[in-house]
Structure formats: structure tokens, C-alpha cells
Amino acid sequence: MLDELSPTDVSNWSTTYELQDFYITFFDQTSGQYVNHTHNVTQAYQSYILPWWRQLLWTILFAGMIVVSTVGNLVVIWIVLANKRMRSVTNYFLVNLSIADTMMSTLNVTFNFTYMLYSDWPFGHFYCKFCQFVAVLSISASVLTLMAISIDRYVAIMSPLRPRLGKRATLGIAGAIWASSCVISSPNFLYFTTDTDLLPDGNVRRICFPDWPDGITTRSQLEYVYNVMFMLLTYFLPIMSMTYTYAKVGVELWGSKSIGECTQRQLDNVKSKRRVVKMMIVVVVIFAVCWLPFHVYFIVTSYYPDVVNYQYIQEIYLGIYWLAMSNSMYNPIIYCWMNSKFRRGFKQFFWCCGAMGNGTLNRHRAFGPDRLDMSMRSVSPSRKNGTSTIRISLHSTYNNTMMSSI
């Protein structure tokens, strides 16, 4: 997966080391057309420069995605960590997912987009390694976290009497996810390097590329094996696993019928679990849709290398790359849309930002349970296995309200 996230050879530059015919494609600013010239030299070379208005369009698209992703995921982290009622097993995993998505948007996308747009790496040798390391690290952490959530939901619903994960166990799993992700992404840090490339017009560009022990990128068998393994470990196998777990959970929640009458508390508990499962199914489906073109692209280019010489391949790849990276901005939107507690948290965050911007900050209702009747006499909270039970004494009538864990 090394050249996938900084495509030296698949965006607006292609370099091979054989004597062959190739095209140099220039964009003529005067005529507004691409001009092709056929050449035959030792180092084949292809370049085309996008018109300024298309560069501006792509910059706006990527900048908007980065801002929405960064702000949204940081707000999700704040919502969970700032309110004790939100500190459940599932929400801790959502924080882990938000951390990975924030790392992707802040530490990787901006730099790789700049490299793909201008084909010059001005960020130095170390960051060439670190940027690509973070890219695979965050992707791996994201998908492994989604798998952990699906397994946790599966166990909680299919084996309700089994003890839930505690805080230490949850943090331990999160630590194992990051450790495994570091192992998966370590080849990027080892084999990515920088070099300079002399162009036919006399200019020099700085390149960031993977240099494997058995050859350069696109010529290395080790790279091909690594890309295939990465694809299996971070896409196909996780998607198959999550499809199975959520299918079983869906059958259990929507397909099974309880014998006898159910109390209101039991019905509310089932509805709460359904909401959580529906939200996570949407997250997984969005993930699968966003990353599928990315993986398909590199399968196609592995077997049909001439595809990278297509005239508009730079913009095609930019579109595929934007779609894959945009996955990091959809999750906070999904949480806000499908979960009332996260929705209240987002409202409170932006309300606080607006209040501080106006120079005033008043007390605002927390984003825990809904507002209760002011005639409530007493509230005594109790917690067990990640849920909260609030007993309310109201006009000598006792009602039990089950709070969901998310």
C-alpha cells in the first residue's frame, strides 16, 4: 500500500526505467488544450499540469473535507470525554475511531494532496516516511476499531448475560489495535525515501517514493504481496466479518419475537440497541463504499499498468483519493444524525463557541438524558454493565427509565 497513498507513478508523473515510446503531455494555456509529444529516452516521463481553475476546485474540495473531518471528530472526542454519561464501551471505541480519522485528515491528507497536485515533495525526508506511516496506521486503526465495535455489539446482544467489557479491557483492546496497526504500517516507515528528479525542461522536482529491497515501486514483488495483504487485512476480511456479525445481530433484534408480554423497560432497551446497531451499520456501509474504488483502482493498475498513462488519470485518482479520505468526515455527521445524545453534544459545543465569540457564556444543559419534569421529587442513579437506571418518584408513582449506553 506504499505508493497508493502518494502515487508517484499513478498521478501526474510516471517514471519507468526501460527504453520505450511514451507521451509527454502538456497543457497549452493559450489554446486551452492538451498537447502530446512522442519521445523515446532511457527514463520515460509523463507530465501534465491542470488549469488553475481545476486546481482551485480540487483545493476547495479537499480543504472542505479536511476542515469538516477535523472539527467533527474533535467534537466527538470532546463529547465523550467531557461527559461521564457518554463513557460507554461503544463510545470509547468511537473515540478511538475519531482519533484515527483526525490523524488522517491533519497529518496525511493535506501533504499527500499537495504532492499529487504539484508533483513536488517539499516536506523533507523524515516526513516522507512519517506521512505514509500515519496513512496506513490510521486506516488500519479505523477498520480494526470498526471490527471491535461489531464484535462488542454481537456479544452484548447475542449473549446478554455475559459480562460486558470494563474500562481497562476496552483501553487494552484499543492499545492492541494501535500496536497491530503500527506493525502493518511499519514497511512504509522503513522503505519510503526521497530523491530528486531532473526533468527534461531542466527543472528539479523532489519525490517521495517507496524503495523496496527487491526493486523500486511497481517493480517490486514484495510491494505487490504487501499491497494484497494490506487489502485483505484492512478491507475484504473486515467487511466480511462485520457483515456476518451485523447480519446475526439484525436477525436477533428485528427477526426474533419474544414469548409473552414485554415490559416498557424491555421495549426501550431493544429500541436503544436497534438504534446503535443501525448507526454502526450505516458507518460500515459508508466505509465500504468510500474505500472500494480505491482498492479496485490498484487492482486494475497492477494488471493493466498502461492505465496510468491515460490523459485524465491525475483527476481520476484525485477523485478516488478524495472519496476514500472523505470517509473520515462522514462518521461525526452520522453520529449527529442518528444519535440524540451526540446531537445535543454538537449543539452544546457550537452554542458554547457562539457564546464565547459573543463574549458571554451562560450555563447550558448537559447533553445527557432529556429534560425531566420539574415536579420530580428524587433522583437516585445506579450503574451496572455500562447502563444507567434512573428511578423517579413523581406524585407517588415510580417509573423506571433505562438509559442506553450510547
Automatic annotation (TrEMBL):
Entry's localization field: Cell membrane
SMART domains reported for this sequence: 7TM_GPCR_Srsx
Database matches in CDD domains: 7tmA_TACR
Membrane topology: Multi-pass membrane protein
GO molecular function, one term: tachykinin receptor activity
Domain G-protein coupled receptors family 1 profile: 72-335
Major place of residence: membrane
SUPFAM superfamilies noted in UniProt: Family A G protein-coupled receptor-like (SSF81321)
GO CC annotations, alphabetized: plasma membrane
Listed transmembrane segments: 56-81, 93-118, 124-149, 170-192, 224-247, 281-304, 316-338
Keywords assigned: Cell membrane, G-protein coupled receptor, Membrane, Receptor, Transducer, Transmembrane, Transmembrane helix
Similarity section: Belongs to the G-protein coupled receptor 1 family.
UniProt protein name: G-protein coupled receptors family 1 profile domain-containing protein
Lineage of source species: Eukaryota, Metazoa, Ecdysozoa, Arthropoda, Hexapoda
